[in-house]
Amino acid sequence: MIVSALITSVGINFGLCVMFFILYSVLRRQPSNFDVYAPRLLADGKSQQRNSFNLERLLPNPGWVRSAWRPSEEELLSSSGLDAVVFMRLIIFSLRVFCVAGIIGVFVLLPVNCSGNQLQEFDFSNLTNDSLDVFSISNVNNGSKRLWIHFCAVYIVTIFVCYLLYYEYNYISAKRMAYFYSSKPQPHQFTTLVRSIPVSTGSSVSNSVESFFTEYHPSTYLSHVVVRRTNKLRDLINDAKKSYRRLVRLQTEPTLPQFKHNGCCGLSKRKIDLVEHYEKKLEDLEENVRLEQSEVSFAGEEVRAAFVSFKSRYGASIATHIPQSINPTHWIMEEVPEPKDVYWPFFSSSFMQRWISKLVVIVACVLLTILFLIPVFIVQGLTNLSQLEVWFPSLKSLLTITFFSQVITGYLPSLILMLFLKAVPPIMKFLSSIQGCISNSGIEKSACNKVLWFTIWNVYFANVLSGTVLTQISIFLDPKNVPSKLAVAVPAQASFFIAYVVTSGWTSTSSELFRIIPFIWSLISKPFTGSKDEEFEVPSLPYHRDIPRLLFFGLLGITYFFLAPLILPFLLVYFCLAYIIYRNQFINVYAPMYETGGKFWPIIHNSMIFSLVLMHAIAVGIFTLKKLSLASTLIFPLPIFTLLFNEYCRKRFLPIFITYSAESLIKKDRQDCNDVTMTEFYDKLVTAYQDPALVPIHYSKNSDGRSSPLLSSAEV
Length: 716
Hints:
By secondary structure, this protein is of the alpha+beta class. It has 31 helices and 8 strands.
């Protein structure tokens, strides 16, 4: 890629960002779009849809930037939870790292790279990145003393990143403990999940649980709820809800057709009243739900798992972390999520089904990784004009036009890769949902790891180590070969990743603000959807999509800052955009669906450690190629120091994110002794983990059946 192609890519994406900002600043103020750009404010009653015309609303207004900047971290914590704070701390951490790395890279390393003349000794006319290589370490002469500047930069940034990682781990750990101490009693703090329950002949799962815990935990045991198979019941309830929504639309919108004709080919046509049709359908579904709930209540539908509640947090923790039986395969205990975070479909699967599902997920991930090499191969071909002319001889005349060649080589490859990557997070979330997680947050954490490592392999290594799958794998099978291969391949792809940051970073983040898909869906669906009084669902931030993206850009910045520091200004712009845009989204759009207490941070920490070690491996190879063997040798202590630092953090901070200490639990339990509301809390705890599919639903008809809702659900 030549410099002009990069400028073309930057220009196109900058224009798209400006367009998204202008459109958002206008469309967000239109009352008809409040459910797209401020669904959380609408749900909280903080925004009202005023329909009176106002010319001022048609003018762009950047006031939302000031509103997004204003809230403090404590306000964000109280409104969106600790997970949102952790997400924003990741962005702040990245800004701090790349501000320091940017100063070193742009004002120190970049002049050193440009002052070299190594590339003048070789003919790079056939390479895709020849013009941009003068800004990289490739242009520094072999054996030059100036390479020691790069060596020092690697040490400085490594030490600074480790210091920030320690600071953030310590800070978020303290926030997690403060969040725990300040929280009201929560059901998941007093409850544990027990599985592999042994049941004697003639008994039931419920009786076994009651007998076991009253005998071995008599002073702390409170109650239990046995898990049952409710897949069929859940399908019936979903059908009832769909029919109810359809009925409400017919009742509240007179413009919709109220009748339909039954029959075909003009024979036996009969006019059917749609309102009566859906009323009758709801009655039938109600009866089916009642029958199914009765059947599910039988012992034969019990799963050998139960939610067991205790009178104290300490009692629940003791039961969770101490083996309950001399047979380690029986009475297996584990921590539970919040009631609203439980992923109920998982419990309907047997042990064998879960085990098979895990194998299927592993195979599916491998196949997806291999198939994704196809778009990567296409992308690599687009960055090379000579390769394009071989593939598409008919385009040879078009490729001679400067603008088209710049767009194709500078903008199109990263755009294609970004579009293919859009499908990865939902696929990984689906695979995680069948893998055996018992909570939505667990599914998202599992998907987050999958998306992250999929992106690192298929976007980073697959583009850097272009070739067959076997060739890529063989490189890592020989550890001695890794640094030298990376040292040759990584700098050559600097221009591609700069364009990728601009396309997948700038434009994707701006489109997150504009919310393209929800906006288009709103335009299409509004003429066909129900009344304005119909409830809408407030979305939650898809952490499994956005955290891996931020971490991948962090990996690019850390590994390229001393190789091609030109990437750093583009990364800084991306993280500045992400900071202000995601703060705005947390205020106006996203509401927390669950709260993990900051458990995403260990994933972030591990990714940063991996990025540092990868940078060290590349540094060893690059200094060896540059004939500076002493610098290559002196780099070796860095990965050892980094891994020792990581091990210290694992011992010091990670246990806080796994479970709470006895000191914390007992202190919190003692506080509850003086709480007069604990009796009411225990009463609610008994049914807190009841399967929502077993909650009775009621259909009621008023005298005016055409204008009143027929379905309501009882809340537990």
